[in-house]
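2,4-dienoyl-CoA reductase [NADPH] (Grimontia celer), 669 aa
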Amino acid sequence: MNSPYPHLLAPLDLGFTQLKNRVLMGSMHTGLEESNDGFKKLAAFYAERAKGGVGLIVTGGFSPNFRGRLHPLSAQFSSGRAARAHRTITDAVHENGGKIALQLLHAGRYAMHPFALSASDMRSPISKFAPSAMSERQILNTIKDFGKSAELAREAGYDGVEIMGSEGYLINQFICARSNTRYDRWGGNYENRIRLAVEVVKAVRERAGRDFIIIFRLSMLDLVEQGSTHDEVVELAKALEKAGVTIINTGIGWHEARVPTIATQVPRAAFAWVTERLKGEVSVPLVTCNRINTPEVAENILASGQADMVSMARPFLADAEFVAKAEQDRSDDINTCIACNQACLDHVFKGKRASCLVNPQACYETELVVTPATNKRRVAVIGGGMAGMSFATTAAERGFEVVLFEKRDTLGGQFNLAMQIPGKEEFKESIRYFTRKVEQSGIEVRLNTEVDAELLKDFDEVVVATGVKPRIPAIQGIDHPKAIDYQTFIREQPELGGRVAIVGAGGIGIDVATMITEPENHTLDDWLKDWGIDKTISYEGGLHPQPHYVAQRQVWLLQRRAGRVGKGPGKTTGWIHKKTLEKRGVELLGGVAYEKIDDAGLHITLEGQHHILPADHVIVCAGQESVNGLVSTLEEQGIKAHVIGGAEHAGELDAKRAIRQGVKLAISL
């Protein structure tokens, strides 16, 4: 039988060992690395991915010494005790047919503690602490520490290590003039600045042996001023190959870069061309990464010769069985990563455990366990949005008889609106996945159905997941023809005039502002140009001046609350929204009091002054209200209902909470 993805699923011979396919599960910090009983949970997490067919797993970053830790209590790997503890992880992966490498990461000036060290004593724009410049002795000891940690990793059962040389961490800080102003043999010209990277690889190879995988995460596109050029990247790659690396993995952008690299706004496979530029310069396998989330995208990259392997990280939070489903030609059954960052990166940056918006069981494999129900009942689910489908599919998996009622003619709820926002097209993948799972689970679906108490009297359990409706603020003239609520606007997409005021600057208001200012027929090259990315990488860091944007429409984004406007709720993505809107000329106004809407436009008061915004349309994005009126009716009839998702609490649209509530409720019944 022919393989559905012949390049993706082809083995890769590394000489001393073979990987069963071209899939590398990229490094992700989960928060389990430091938590109590975390290694048992990590073992379960990685075991599921190994069982699901990943060719090579890379762990989250572990520091080779104390001063290299990201936080004071961050994970460190530098002792025999640590090696013994990690056996739980490596054994679990090997028992499930996988291979795993430990990532060694020295934070350098990104360390969030006063003991930070770097090439020079310059504080990074995203750090609280200025680092101390490393002495010659500290540099040599750090090189030894990398070597020792690699040797211990081998003792712990790891098949290899990944040396973190990108994303602006210590090794990257030595490589670039941006953060290295030294005048000794570790600074100055490029040969000196890459010395640390090369010596670390040599030390690791010497201590770990010849038959041990060494991946080097090389920053091929720094996306910061005074970063590397392509010629310099080639020079370093050749030096690393000579020093003994097995695989070179692509790194894109420093953490302090002001260019999005992995958020949902980034086009799929937006940076595969970066890896392709290095092809032919070295003979070791090259891995490409960033926004690769389907087998089709991965196969196209490999088939076109842009890389030898693909790295996917968040897609394995979304679906542990990604590779197995690809092997079985079941791509439609994959729970696709939508690159929202809401439960993974946003959690990690808040010091919380990572998980996944579309798969709440990620990193909770030992806690959110779906088991067959002992008392199988008949359950009615009212509302076919994300909360309703999440509950329905999990309950059906447990053996309950489930009937799903939806008043509209399609499932998906608010995601049907979200997927129409430019940069959120991935949300349609979640609708596809959950709808398909509903079909496969034997759930009876009744569309175009308004539910009443009479319809529910024969059910043992009732779950209300009726979602939200737009909140209509008490503004004089809110029923004027110029005014339209966000749901109606996104659903019907009427023709807009050249001047639009948006009432409400939360996540929905930002989405609408993005939608109405999006350029037509936007290509990947257009996107790269918008963000000032130089495809020749002849400029330092791969950046050139961003073009001036000519606004097609005048837009005001308004909020009652004073202070920052347009950032949105996402911790790791909010700045992208704000910068996008600013580039597009959207006027962001906080501290606004709304007076009325009339033929002249929107009347407001700002800083005590009256203004008339001559808007042709006013789009109302002033929050949501729960749609849960049915609950009181059911209670009057003596029918107890479980309320989840937006019906339970409107707030900002929160699919993360809705999907998780659905799974947890289904498990608890």
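The chain has three domains: 12-107+117-260+277-284, 378-470+625-668, 483-622. The mean pLDDT is 95. ok done for today
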